[in-house]
Design a protein that fits this description.
binds iron/sulfur cluster; binds zinc ion; six-stranded mixed β-sheet
Length: about 300
């Protein structure tokens, strides 16, 4: 199999684009896809200060690497969640990656914020860790970016992640979530930093191949709590459709983004949290409410 661009030996075949590419041309293809997403969805401007949330997994490390190669001003951000074994391994991977690139790493620990990690907080409230973890990460990322003057927070969501979320929202007809699913969540208030997903036009397989070929050393293990994630069967369903009809995932997601504008927005009116000042639809934001509940459980234990 020869590379479509240069006649060298191809190392990957991408059926969705009817392409076979050698290493060099594949790495360029990935950069082009990210540039296309940035241009099409107006994600970032050159010169902006961009904070990239790194988990140690392939997607976030690839997002950082690609944006840095494209000349964006990126700094790394990692949250130590407090998940035994997994958090230590994630932090090691992130530190090694950042060191290799001479980049700046900002670190936050959930334990410093709540007095305990995510798993312990969930145990005290008798809730699954994931039901708190996403909210905690979003809150801390936004607050940190605001306090340090970043204009964008980048996450490594890829096409498979976004397709699975979209399918899940459609299967449950969650129109409120549908209207908020986008590669760009713009800033509508100075304390709300825009959220950007530059990998949305790249499949999971393409991101994985990018990491292997570049190469980027990432943490292959998933969080132990990810096992029962509802997105897994949805990803499998989309993979099956993709196998039968290459390009399905892209058509599904890009088609959605075209009709998304016509979905009525169901966002409640945002106001400032009476405790921390960050935006919420209630009097107190979910993060401050969580802190209060945990303090109450602490009081009961005394
Ligand atoms: Fe957090 Fe759940 Fe993801 Fe683990 S799987 S990092 S607990 S959201
Ligand atoms: Zn608050």
């Amino acid at each position: 199999m020869k590379c479509r661009k240069c006649d060298e030996r191809a190392v990957i075949r991408i059926r969705a684009h009817n392409l076979a590419l050698c290493r060099e041309d594949f790495l360029d293809f990935v950069l082009d896809r990210v540039q296309k997403a940035i241009r099409t969805y107006r994600l970032l401007q050159k010169g902006e200060r961009v904070l990239v949330a790194l988990s140690g997994g392939k997607d976030s490390l690839a997002a950082f690497d690609i944006l840095q190669r494209l000349g964006y001003q990126v700094e790394a951000f990692h949250i130590e969640l407090g998940i035994d074994g997994f958090s230590e391994a994630s932090l090691e991977k992130v530190k090694a990656f950042v060191r290799e690139r001479g980049a700046t790493l900002h670190l936050l620990r959930v334990e410093d914020e709540l007095g305990m990690g995510v798993v312990e907080a969930a145990r005290r409230l008798r809730r699954p860790p994931c039901s708190l973890c996403g909210m905690i990460k979003r809150y801390l990322m936004n607050r940190f970016a605001y306090e340090r003057g970043f204009s964008a927070v980048v996450t490594g969501h890829n096409l498979d992640d976004e397709g699975a979320t979209l399918l899940g929202n459609l299967l449950r007809w969650q129109t409120g979530y549908l209207s908020r699913q986008a590669p760009l969540l713009p800033s509508s208030h100075p304390r709300l930093i825009k959220k950007v997903k530059p990998l949305v036009l790249l499949s999971e397989r393409e991101v994985l191949a990018y990491c292997l070929l570049r190469p980027i050393s990432y943490l292959p293990d998933r969080c132990p709590y990810a096992k029962g994630a509802t997105s897994i069967p949805q990803k499998e369903a989309l993979n099956l459709l993709e196998l039968h009809s290459p390009g399905t995932k892209l058509r599904f997601y890009q088609g959605f983004l075209q009709v998304r504008e016509s979905i009525p927005q169901e966002e409640g009116e945002l106001r400032e949290c009476e405790v921390c000042g960050f935006l919420t639809v209630r009097e107190k934001c979910q993060f401050c409410t969580l802190k209060e509940r945990l303090n109450a459980t602490e009081g009961r234990r005394r």
